[in-house]
Design goal:
Layout lengths: L32 H4 L11 H7 L6 E6 L4 H4 L1 H7 L7 E10 L2 E8 L3 H7 L14 E6 L8 H8 L6 E7 L2 E8 L2 E7 L4 H12 L7 E8 L2 E8 L4 H11 L1 E5 L14 E5 L10 E6 L2 E12 L4 E5 L2 E4 L2 E2 L2 E6 L7 E7 L2 E7 L4 E6 L4 E5 L20 E2 L3 E10 L11 E2 L10 H14 L15
Antiparallel strand pairs: 1-2, 1-5, 2-3, 3-4, 5-6, 6-7, 7-9, 8-9, 10-11, 11-23, 12-13, 12-23, 13-21, 14-15, 14-20, 15-16, 17-18, 18-19, 21-22, 23-24
């Protein structure tokens, strides 16, 4: 599912509630109306000062979007009309987040409570009635003000039309947008910055000359600048989304534990080559208005069969290693599979099987990493199995840019084709077993299926 309006508070998400399948409805968050009417002493009601001072004390994220400067770029005016509000009625959207239980969201402008709830429906927020030109939703603690370092980093981006800063311990991600140019700064794990630089430089070739990328590595930090080289920055930015990189939200648990429900991730639209083990976003063959996300298991000519959740390709069982009992939802057996140059975690349900299926030309066979709960190639065509035509590819899922506020932030900026990362409580209980499995990883040659049928 493509991301909706809400992720604008975080990063470059596409502002269109595109249809998807298996979508999860958001439960409404209860707003503390009394607290939402308060402002800090000395701050003009409705001002940015009042917002910062009223934000939760343990805020990890501060974000601001000046809507007037970005309405055409992100289609906000169209969404306002759909919500019954006149175009141009919103000046700014602000957000401060400590957790799912402590957050503050403000919509500044001439809008009603209903308009704000419609526009930001992805969060399920309940807003108070307008006061001082601001419609506000607060969840959790009374105002206290965020950490000083976070506020200083946020205020340093005051000139930007989009400003987001995420900070957790020694990790910080900032995104800024001014006059058609985006700058993304992030701290990566040791050794990852150089490979990330190469990825950005290679994939951004697809949007030249409308978008000119500049990528720099400073220690473990990577700085990516994307600027419009032509006279129309809006067209350039739209080209960026249409042809290069688009934000999506995982609507279901079909890819758990690799992609978790509600995680926001980027899809690289420049890479549409079919390879074993890649995570693919695609249009569902039975309804091409719905986007699915699964992993490529079989290529054209392969015969794929699943027995007890383990795929077999041309009679060759995909190598795997048992990690242990997964402590999340669902509680199934966790394995690491090795396919080609990929190592990834899967949830296995004993007794799950599918009949052998020969992948037709120009199609691939896809499975969810949650083999217990995934509507993938095994189930298509009334359970007879089905292939995915190559022309329905959207692109490859590349990295998570934001996870649920309720989960640990170690998954932010997570490369989806890197080493598997688990969340608590499985992270603590299975870390040693996961490391043991990864240490037994076979060579790429030993993890590649035998020759396919012609």
């Amino acid at each position: 599912m493509r991301s909706g309006v809400a992720p604008l508070l975080f990063i470059l998400a596409a502002c269109s509630n595109a249809p998807g399948v298996e979508s999860a409805a958001s439960s409404a968050l209860v707003v503390d109306v009394a607290a939402s009417a308060t402002t800090s002493p000395g701050a003009e009601p409705g001002s940015l000062d009042a917002f910062v001072r009223d934000a939760p004390k343990e805020s990890r994220i501060l974000g601001r979007i000046r809507v007037a400067a970005n309405s055409e770029l992100f289609g906000i005016d169209a969404q306002l009309r759909a919500c019954g509000a006149p175009p141009g009625s919103i000046e700014e959207i602000r957000g401060a987040f400590a957790s799912a239980e402590e957050l503050l969201v403000e919509v500044v402008g001439k809008v009603s409570k209903a308009h704000a709830e419609c526009l930001l429906g992805g969060f399920g927020l309940v807003f108070a009635e307008p006061a001082d030109g601001v419609v506000r939703a607060r969840v959790g603690a009374t105002p206290a003000g965020p950490p000083k370092a976070l506020v200083e980093a946020f205020r340093a981006m005051d000139a930007e039309s989009i400003a987001v800063v995420i900070e957790e311990a020694d990790k910080r991600l900032t995104v800024r947008h001014t006059q058609g140019a985006f700058e993304i700064r992030g701290r990566l794990a040791a050794g990852e910055a150089a490979s990330a630089k190469a990825w950005w430089e290679t994939t951004t070739k697809a949007v030249k000359p409308l978008i000119e990328p500049n990528v720099e590595v400073e220690g473990n930090d990577i700085v990516v600048r994307l600027s419009a080289s032509g006279p129309d920055p809006v067209a350039a930015a739209l080209r960026l989304r249409e042809s290069f990189l688009e934000a999506f939200k995982m609507p279901s648990g079909s890819m758990t534990p690799t992609l978790l429900r509600e995680e926001q991730f980027f899809v690289d639209k420049t890479d549409k080559q079919a390879r074993y083990g890649d995570i693919l976003a695609y249009w569902f063959p039975a309804n091409t208005r719905q986007a699915f996300v699964h992993r490529i298991i079989g290529l054209p000519g392969d015969t794929v069969e699943v027995v007890d959740g383990q795929p077999s390709i041309n009679g060759w069982p995909v190598p795997r290693c048992r990690v242990g009992r997964y402590q999340g939802e669902p509680a199934e057996e966790l394995f690491v599979e090795f396919l080609g140059d990929r190592a990834y975690t899967v949830l296995i349900h004993e007794g799950d099987r599918s009949a052998p299926f020969i992948v037709p030309p120009k199609e691939v066979y896809v499975l969810g990493d949650n083999r217990y709960s995934s509507h993938d190639s095994r189930m298509w065509n009334d359970g007879a199995g089905g292939g995915l035509p190559l022309d329905l590819f959207i692109g490859k899922a590349s990295f998570v840019f934001f996870d649920s506020l309720a989960r640990a932030p170690q998954r932010w900026l997570l490369a989806l084709h890197g080493a598997p990362v688990l969340t608590e409580p499985s992270r603590a209980s299975l870390a040693e077993s996961l490391a043991r499995c990864l240490s037994t990883r076979p060579s790429v040659a030993d993890a590649t299926p035998p020759r396919r049928r012609k």
